[in-house]
Design goal:
Chain B: It comes from Arthrobacter echini. The structure holds 2 protein chains of 2 kinds. Chain A has one domain: Rossmann fold. Helix content of chain A is 36%, strand content 28%. The radius of gyration of chain A is 18 Å and the shape is globular. The N and C termini of chain A lie far apart (41 Å). Chain B has one domain. Chain B contains 5 helices and 16 strands. The radius of gyration of chain B is 21 Å and the shape is globular. In chain B, α4 runs antiparallel to α5. The chains are: A alpha/beta, B mainly beta. At the A-B interface, α2 and α3 of A face α3 and α4 of B.
Chain lengths: 252, 441
């Protein structure tokens, strides 16, 4: 049982127009086995939270803390965070020139586990996971994300989730840009891993439709860098009907 | 990062024979569509330093052909070829073929008498290959290659002894021919090497350059009918070396020729590898790998001269750059002459900028004088390994240095694998690793 704890997190970015605060005091606790959905309108800071947890250098933490089982995540480098068990499924996975998927997956797995995976099992695991996510076998020989469609990139993110088996998965708008079939396949992947009971999930989404496939235990509504409201799955249903208007009006 | 782009022919490609550029494009398009190129790369090679903040525009851009005002030759085929130094005026740096080369760093190779001691040559391996040291009067010299620039002509006129390596007729060389070329003087020097693969012979010849030099070198390569020859030129010079080398190959009927360049060390290395088809049915592959560190200038200017029918050529050059003022130049000229019907050619150059402050120039040129060809195309892509790539790999647990190595190794391995001499491949892979480590990335 692990706990990812975010306390009073304030985050800003430096731009040409100066320093802009984005997160203004976020507090959130996720335990193994729980699924938390973070919902909110564009620009509310959802993705900033995801990137900050993963350690993207663009985001500056002004105050607050993130801990994983009491360990200070903010003092870790990006790769250390991954090795500590945090996984960010990216909203826009980049294409990495010159590195095949096979090579990348094995290198990452070796780095995460501290030892090379047994070749025989690993190859089989990769093949099985790929076929479950309906990723074409020849993708293994292609360069990471190179020439993949938006949907293929998202599947490959979930492929990594299933192969790397993190303690906490942060899914940054994994549902955006997916058609219904791809959404189902991707959601099944997340559910497969989650059902093993060894992972906590932070699901960031703009829309409610992925919540039909991945059932959240908690829903948090992000408005202007803060959690404006939280509740159970029923909150998502209400958002589906009402949208974010009620929050943004209050904010204005 | 920008989207992948690739082009077939440039709008300013000289076209002859009454074929409009549009017709060419339409017909040639099929040769290039669907070619895999590196995503996240732009085709743009000639980018001014400092002008790139990693946010290139999406979409297609045509090649720019340098920033200096340059009047192109009417045809690459009309460039002067001569053994007479007087036929090449003193260099000003404005010449089309010297405009990227920092002449000041040539250590006088273009101005001085090349009277320094030539680098020592030691040939090992393949006992059934003949190695001779001959005087400059030997009738075989200069039959298959003619200087195309001033430094090459100066080198032709200055050498006193030449090394002639002959793979006899119908002989398969017993192992690789390792030609170790070791510089020991910084005085401007000339060197001449002739490699002759006689009819139906087969061999791999490795020119392994090391030490310190200011060297103007001509390597003449004759691939006779039906022969199969690989020439690998490795430049692992000391940091102060200056090396200008013309490596011209004359390709016979149904011959197979593979040329591989690996340039890693030296202050200034400028290679002009040429493949000149002299009879039908031959195949040429030209590969190159270069890795420039801070301050290094690594330049390669290729010519594939399709003068005869039904020949095939493939050119793949890849470069990595790191550090302030690391500069690489790749110019690939492919000429399909009127007689060269049935030609099939494709050339690619890809560059990977690993740090700020480096500059890569890439200029593919395709000149077509007949419409009756199988295919012709080229692609050039220059991209950078940026913070987003690094973040992605590190977010999967891979430490920063390992992430950079993973990318560079993957990028350059394709060329190293073409050498097919395992011991040398291993050595060069290690050299690339050392380059990376030296960059303190």
């Amino acid at each position: 049982m692990s706990t990812l704890e975010i306390k009073d997190l304030h985050v800003s970015i430096d731009t040409d127009q100066g320093n802009i605060p984005i997160l203004r005091g976020v507090t959130l606790t996720i335990n193994t086995g729980e699924t938390h959905a973070i919902m909110g309108p564009n620009g509310s800071g959802k993705s900033t939270l995801a990137s900050t947890i993963a350690g993207h250098p663009r985001y500056k933490v002004d105050s607050g803390s993130i801990t994983l089982d009491g360990e200070d995540v903010l003092s870790m480098s990006v790769d250390e965070r991954a090795r500590a068990g945090l996984f960010l499924a990216m909203q826009y996975p980049v294409e990495v020139p010159g590195v095949t998927m096979t090579n990348f997956l094995r290198t990452a797995k070796t780095a995460l586990d501290g030892e090379a995976p047994s070749l025989r099992h690993w190859t089989k695991d990769v093949k099985t996971a790929m076929s479950k996510l309906r990723i074409d076998a020849d993708f293994a020989q292609r360069n990471v994300n190179e020439g993949f469609s938006g949907g293929e990139k998202k599947r490959v993110e979930i492929l990594q989730l299933e192969l790397f088996r993190p303690k906490f998965a942060i899914l940054d708008e994994t549902d955006s840009g997916l058609d219904v079939d791809a959404l189902k396949v991707v959601s099944e992947g997340v559910n497969r891993e989650h059902s093993k009971g060894e992972m906590g999930t932070l699901l960031i989404t703009h829309y409610t439709r992925i919540l039909r496939y991945i059932k959240p235990d908690f829903v948090h509504v992000f408005i202007a860098g803060r959690i404006a409201e939280q509740g159970g799955p029923e909150l998502a249903d209400r958002l589906e009907e009402e949208g974010y208007d009620r929050f943004t009006t209050v904010e204005a | 990062m920008a989207e992948t782009t690739h082009t077939d022919i440039t709008p300013d490609t000289p076209l002859d024979g009454g074929i409009s550029a549009l017709d060419e494009k339409a017909r040639l398009g099929s040769a290039t569509v669907g070619r895999a190129s590196i995503d996240g790369f732009t085709e743009e090679g000639e980018r001014l330093p400092g002008g790139d903040d990693g946010t290139e525009q999406l979409g297609f851009k045509k090649h720019s052909h340098g920033n200096a005002p340059v009047i192109p030759e009417a045809s690459r085929g009309e460039r002067r070829r001569s053994f007479d130094l007087a036929d090449f005026p003193p260099l000003t740096g404005q010449e089309e073929d010297w405009r990227f080369t920092p002449l000041k760093r040539l250590r006088g190779l273009h101005t001085d008498d090349l009277t320094g001691p030539a680098p020592a040559i030691e040939v090992t391996g393949a006992g059934n290959v003949t190695v001779e040291t001959v005087g400059r009067g030997d009738a075989r010299l200069g039959k298959g290659a003619t200087p195309e620039d001033r430094v090459s002509a100066a080198a032709w006129n200055a050498f006193s002894e030449a090394t002639v390596i002959t793979i006899p007729r119908e002989t398969v060389a017993e192992g690789e021919v390792m030609v170790s070329i070791t510089g020991r003087s910084a005085e401007p020097a000339a060197q001449y090497i002739l490699i002759r693969a006689e009819q139906f012979s087969r061999a791999v010849v490795v020119l392994d350059h090391g030490g310190s030099v200011a060297l103007a070198q001509n390597v003449e390569i004759v691939v006779e009918d039906g022969a199969e020859l690989t020439v690998v030129s490795v430049q692992e010079w000391d940091d102060d070396a200056v090396h200008v080398s013309s490596q011209q190959a004359k390709i016979g009927r149904d011959a197979r020729y593979k040329h591989v360049v690996v340039s890693l060390g030296g202050d200034l290395v400028r290679l002009t590898p040429s493949s000149i088809f002299s009879a039908p049915g031959a195949e040429v592959e030209m590969y190159g790998l270069y890795f420039a560190d801070a301050g290094q200038h690594l330049e390669q200017r290729l010519l594939v001269d399709h003068a005869t029918p039904n020949c095939t050529s493939r050119v793949t050059y890849k470069g990595a750059l790191q550090g302030q003022d690391a500069h690489t130049v790749w110019v690939g000229d492919v000429l399909i002459r009127k007689a060269a019907e049935g030609t099939d050619t494709y050339e690619t150059n890809r560059n990977l900028l690993l740090t700020d402050g480096a500059r890569s120039d890439s200029v593919p040129n395709l000149e077509i004088e007949t419409g009756l060809i199988e295919g012709a195309g080229h692609a050039s892509a220059t991209g950078r390994f940026d913070d987003e790539h690094l973040f992605y790999l590190m977010a999967r647990g891979i430490p920063e240095k390992a992430a950079r190595r993973l990318v560079v190794r993957g990028f350059l391995t394709e060329v190293i694998q073409q050498i097919r001499v395992p011991a040398l491949e291993e050595r060069l892979s290690e050299s690339v690793e050392r380059e990376l480590a030296a960059g303190n990335l």
